[in-house]
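Researcher: Go.
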Amino acid sequence: SKVTDQDLVKAVYDKIKTKYAAQISHINVRANGGVVTIEGWATTKSVKKEIEKWAKKVKCVKKVVSLLTVGVSGGCGPGQKQCGDICIPEKETCNICRAAPCF
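Model: Structure:
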């Protein structure tokens, strides 16, 4: 069976939830053609690095683009929209899950 981009998004979120469930509301994960983009913010530099590392280890992920920052970011700028506690490009999909069951 073929691994879909949605499968990759779920796999990355599953890894994040194992240790950093509190981070979920401010991290958006999306995939396109096996390229995973992670955007939002992490509480510390070590959390950011660990999340990036986990995403790279997900089977069938071709590349990880990290747009994660450290610390709370400000409001959404031009061309962006609210996605959970973060801002993402207006044309992108928000996959942040706020209610159970999630994925």
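Model: The CA atoms of residues 8 and 59 lie 8 Å apart.
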